[in-house]
Please model this.
Amino acid sequence: MVDERPPKLRLGVLLSGGGRTLVNICDEIEAGRLDAEVAVVIASRQCKGIERAEARGLDVRLVPYKQIADVETYSGRIAEILDAAGVQLVLQAGFLSLWHIPPQYEGRVMNIHPALLPKFGGHGMYGHHVHEAVLAAGEAESGCTVHFVTNEYDAGPIILQRKAPVEPGDTPETLAERVFEQECIAYPEAIRLFAAGKLTIEGNCVHVRP
Model:
């Protein structure tokens, strides 16, 4: 009997840190809630994420950002690896190195940001810096944003957002954990929408079809 099921969406994951977002995606796949497969993982430096990816039996490539002369060469190397792996959707998962999105991946690279963009985004706004800024501003809520990536920091079309309250006595660490809980829901949902062909980009807006 011929298997008529559509092929799984092939993901490429870019990371620079602990790899918790990658683990969440893998957990969703293994639980049957996400019809996809991680084709390749690219790390920009030695990090815990490499260990976690290897523990899952994934194909991991280290492309050290600081050892490559310029952004274009670095970007080309990443694109070569993604192309060779047949990646259909690229996920940035705490990826801190600048790369320029080549034409073949326009509208096919997502990122998750630990704040409600356009607030608390841009160059230097990552990790604990974001949560520190949210608390310093006295915000009543924070959250996360999944967006398509362009060649401008955190400025790509927004796919979806999920909110998390800022509670009295919060530290950057406690707020980060509450936001991460929402990230674990938001990123898989955005991937499912992409896989189902429900996302259309018009200008800097994303339309989600029912």
